[in-house]
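Hi Q.,

Before the meeting this afternoon, I wanted you to have the NAP prediction in hand. No need to reply - just skim if you have a minute. The sequence and ligand are here:
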Amino acid sequence: MGRFCRADVLVPARHQRSRPLRPKVLITRKIFKESIAHVAKHCDVEINQRDTPLTPQQLIKKLQRKQGVITALTDVISESVLARCPDLKIVCNIAVGFNNFDVKAATRRGVMMTNTPGVLDDTTADLTWCLILAAGRGLIDADRYFRSGKWKGWGLMQFLGHDIHHKILGICGLGRIGARVAKRAKGFEMRILYTGRTRAPQEVERDLDATFVDKQTLLRESDFVTLHVPLSPFTTHYISAAELKLMKPTAVLINASRGPVVDEKALVKALRDGWIAGAGLDVYEHEPRPAPGLARLKNVVLAPHIGSATMETRLKMANKAAENCVAGLTGRRPPNLLNPEVLKA
Ligand code: NAP
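Predicted structure with the ligand bound:
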């Protein structure tokens, strides 16, 4: 079978023979068997069994004569990829973020694109809180110290972190995930500031006890700044040197959105020179590589892009992508269609 394995063995051969015009779908990364089985009921499926990204050339080659593809955020579906895959009808990301898609180009070419909103909000908010707690209290550095055998017993002045309770949490982007982060902050009796493109409805603000402020005010006043904006040309380097300089020297920056939202080189300087106290990151500007010097700093917690990585949530995400794909290829409207204009056309 080599590197690629035909999953149409999941479907009895007689069934396949009786339906020769089944759509063909590529799944670009390793995913759950039950998500594959759902697609394989309706389509012939080819899977990249190796859990590494395909190069653009491999992707284009594999997409010849395919009508559907289930992608990960590591697959870039650009205008040039779309141009070279003329049979493609639907592209289904297993992610809520879709900055790896050129949605406008897909719309021009009549290709549907989908994502997986709603099923990962709580899980990503939990991970955001892991980062807030770990970075605020220096947990990872303390763990490393303990494991090294250097710890000689309790000391009043050891590993002094920063309180989290009763502090100010600044949320950039009070969308689905940002709101779940805010909800959890109530338990820590924090004051919540938020900023973004649009102000949330009054009932949301009241429910979350969240105050809308401009970006500068949020950066100046918050003890923890957490980023939940999508990556777009407007949010690339949303936090760079100027913004980091506005933050308190005791503040902690959390990023569980997308890496390029933060100018990572500037962040390394800010952490090294004490412009801010710490950071907790789940995402990086040039994944999988951190900016030079980042991984040597003690005041930063580094997670390998695991925001939605729980068994339950990743399964829901993969199933959602499978549902979108099957719907699109069997003449139904995909539940999470990003470019409904395609259907009108
Ligand atoms: P969402 O519901 O669309 O929320 C995004 C928020 O950002 C909204 O409040 C939106 O405002 C605001 N926003 C958009 N563009 C902005 C801009 N230019 N300036 C300021 N605010 C802006 O999205 P979500 O589901 O919460 O997800 C947010 C992002 O998290 C995703 O796009 C994804 O990249 C990332 N994510 C990461 C992980 C991970 O593994 N670390 C997991 C899941 C998601 P409007 O109301 O005006 O649109």
